[in-house]
């Protein structure tokens, strides 16, 4: 006896909730396949009928744009960084920060490679404030308790940590020999000097 497949009716949602759910289902597809995906694939991933997409999005391109924006938005990273405790020693604090940045940057690099961009859409270096300003402010606050032990102000320590993470984790910058989060933190705090005292340059 043949088995009949029944399409599950999409659960009732507001238009905003529906858009958010569709975008969330689209992001992994874009990360894996780039823009070479169909609305049928998106609908299957979201568990909805294909026509439901066009009730809340003008077209597929507008959905893909929102999916990319959602994937590169730093909000979740900021929340995770904000949860890091300042009671940890500085090196452990920065290690947690570097691990969080590693996850974010690896994910963004993968997405950018899939869609053929070399920087996140809308990030042309002229944002005011930059997209990552909130994230950097959180890192600065995490460094602040140790200000008196550092040669540089917390904001500069945060900036250099981000630079080292970006270069250390980006395969085209590090020649496919990435640094680990622990190596990034060690380089930031101790450099490459082998002596017991760091030289004054």
TrEMBL record:
Keywords: DNA-binding, Transcription, Transcription regulation. Residues 38-57 bind DNA. The keyword Transcription regulation applies. The keyword Translocase does not apply. Pfam families: TetR_N. InterPro entries: Homeodomain-like_sf, HTH-type_TetR-like_transc_reg, HTH_TetR. One of its GO terms (molecular function) is transcription cis-regulatory region binding. Residues 16-75 form the HTH tetR-type domain. It comes from the Bacteria. PANTHER family: HTH-TYPE TRANSCRIPTIONAL REGULATOR BETI, HTH-TYPE TRANSCRIPTIONAL REGULATOR RUTR. This is TetR/AcrR family transcriptional regulator.
């Amino acid at each position: 006896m043949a088995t009949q497949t029944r399409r599950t009716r999409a659960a009732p949602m507001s238009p905003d909730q529906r858009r958010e759910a569709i975008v969330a289902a689209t992001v992994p597809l874009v990360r894996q396949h780039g823009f070479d995906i169909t609305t049928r694939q998106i609908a299957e991933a979201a568990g909805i009928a294909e026509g439901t997409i066009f009730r809340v999005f003008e077209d597929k391109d507008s959905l893909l744009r929102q999916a990319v924006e959602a994937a590169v938005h730093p909000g979740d990273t900021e929340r995770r960084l904000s949860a890091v405790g300042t009671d940890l020693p500085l090196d452990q604090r920065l290690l947690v920060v570097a691990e969080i940045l590693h996850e974010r940057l690896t994910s963004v690099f993968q997405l950018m490679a899939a869609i053929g961009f070399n920087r996140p859409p809308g990030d042309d270096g002229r944002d005011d404030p930059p997209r990552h300003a909130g994230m950097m402010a959180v890192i600065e606050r995490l460094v602040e308790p140790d200000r008196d032990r550092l040669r540089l102000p917390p904001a500069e320590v945060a900036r250099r940590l981000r630079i080292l993470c970006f270069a250390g984790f980006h395969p085209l910058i590090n020649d496919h020999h990435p640094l680990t989060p622990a190596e990034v933190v060690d380089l930031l705090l101790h450099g490459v000097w082998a002596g017991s005292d760091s030289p004054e340059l």
